[in-house]
Amino acid sequence: MIVGVDIGGANLKFAAVDPKSNNEACHSCFFPMWTDANRLADVLVAELSSFGKIDAFAITMTGEMADCFIDRHLGVQQIAEACRLAATKAGVDRFGFYRSDGRFTRLTESKKETDSVASANWHASATWLASKFSVDHGILVDIGSTTTDLIPINNREVSTPSKTDHDRLCEGALAYVGCGRTPVCSLVSSLLIDGKWCPVMNEVFATIDDALVVLEMTSPDAEDLQSADGQPRTVPFAANRIARMVGLDRSSVSVDVAKQLSEQIVDAAKARIKQSFHAVDQGGTIILGGHGDALFDPPSGRGIIRLTDRFSEPASRCLPALAVAHLFQNNRYALL
């Protein structure tokens, strides 16, 4: 059994692949790196134990950007060390860290060459998918809870000179818009309500997830309290959070009005993603994935591979973890 893990700043994503049967099992869990970094090794051990006997462990990460780390270099080192501890406790001898050049590296090298390991999960996803679906020319659009990756593909390989998140932000290949954590005030400066434009409050009273819940574009969850105010992710509470963005609340903003506000918020997110798409798009097949794929409307006349049609919802959500698991297997566990 090979387990891939994508260690993010807010979520941990796991994918187990059985090389013999090619069966896959994927799941994710909320993990606030910015407060719980010291618990990472213990959480990894607990999650890995759910997969039974593990032969190899493949790792990619973005969590080094969490502000609990003074810089990315130390973030990679601390996360890598947590992975070593987890592998030791789980009895896994073979483990490697994915690099932005498509290879895997050992613990010691990952701690030295941190720039090559930091935030490389996008490269793993695009590399694996381009090969799996034989995409000679196209682009991967992967919309997660926090960001959108837009990765050009040529000759079945990643086709961008960017190596870091900074490079990709400047190029347009990384849009800081997702379907979960994106604050409403980062998407719109004002909203039309009662026939007049009202500037929004520059507070994280609501996120795009609230707009999606109100519009029934995502499933509500009364048990999920990971919202801006710590209240449930249900339509009434989400509508109340949206109302706060214009200085109001549920006493004066109905769910119907909240829907009108939410439509404007979602439209703004779609426009931001579309702008980044056009900045890097080189034509060809569009691979569309991530649990926020509803935020992208593909241009007409293009071939589309929708990952929700090819994978289960958990697998689509855990795409980078699934990618590194398969790539590590395909590379026969080769390490630099």
Give a verbal description of the structure.
The chain is an alpha/beta fold and about 325 residues long. The chain has two domains: about 1-135 and about 310-330, Nucleotidyltransferase, domain 5; about 185-270, 2-Layer Sandwich (Nucleotidyltransferase, domain 5), CATH 3.30.420. It has helices spanning about 35, 40-50, 70-90, 105-110, 115, 120-130, 165-170, 210-215, 235-245, 255-280, 305-310, 315, 320-330, and strands at about 1-5, 10-15, 25-30, 55-60, 95-100, 105, 135-145, 150-155, 155-160, 175, 190-195, 195-200, 285-290, 305. A six-stranded mixed β-sheet has the order 3-2-1-4-5-6, sandwiched between helices. Helix 8 (about 210-215) crosses helix 9 (about 235-245). The protein is globular and about 60 Å long.
Compact overview of the structure:
One of its GO terms (molecular function) is hydrolase activity. This protein is α/β, with parallel strands linked by helices.
Identify the notable features of this structure and list them briefly.
2 domains; alpha/beta; 13 helices; globular; six-stranded mixed β-sheet; 14 strands; Nucleotidyltransferase, domain 5; 336 residues
